[in-house]
Amino acid sequence: MAPLGPRLGPFFLQLPPGYGPDQRDDLARWLEAWPAGYPVTVEVRHPGWYSAPAEAALMALLARHGAGRVVMDVRPIRTGDAAGNALLAAARERKPDVPLRPLHSGGIALIRYIGHPDLERNEPFLDEWAGRITGWLAEGIAVYCFMHCPDEARSPALCRAMQARLERLGAAPPLPWASAAIPPPPPEQLSLL
Fold first, then answer.
1. 113-138: pLDDT as tens digits
2. Do the domain assignments include residue 184?
3. Which of 12, 43, 93, 168 is a plausible cystine mate for 70, CB 3.0–4.6 Å?
4. DSSP states of 34-65 as a string?
């Protein structure tokens, strides 16, 4: 991964749903073995990590190792009725129903936003996140957003909506191609051959 240089963001360790706070020592050993110089973020999915004592211990562990915490926001897919939307119903079934904990550590925040396929339902959440991201950036926190949706065809629109909000708040510059009179052609897909 070293050849990626400055383009390399943090690695993303997603723990399985059954990996609970009773395995904190195992996570500590893993973080101790992680190579220095490569930022890593950790996503916890077991509900036990969200209780006060376990969460405080997790945050201390992450801070000690300079690791970030993945902030998973599943609130959008939990809004409204899923009747008639098989993708949304499946996402609700697969994604852990964990509370939003907007915490960061190690100077890194990785936001995993799971958007609602009805893009309008995301607006209040995106407004909230844009304000929080702006504040974190002002504090010097490196912020990464991983935004997706049960209907992945809608994920780019979610990303554009977040980018527009961050631009309005002065937290992000316009995308280079956004101001071009004639947008550049899409890049050609590379080959492994």
1. 999 999 999 999 999 999 999 999 99
2. no
3. 43
4. SPTTS-EEEE--SGGGGSHHHHHHHHHHHHHT
- Angle, helices 155-168 vs 123-138, to 10°: value is 50
81: containing domain: 8-168
CA distance 84 to 65: 45
Structure tokens at 112: 């995993």
Q: What is the pLDDT of residues 64-98, one digit of tens each?
A: 999 999 999 999 999 998 988 999 999 999 999 99
Q: For the whole model, what pTM was predicted?
A: 0.88
Count of domains in the chain? 1
C-beta separation of 97 from 68 below 8 A: no
Can you give the CATH number for the domain in which 24 is found?
3.20.20.410
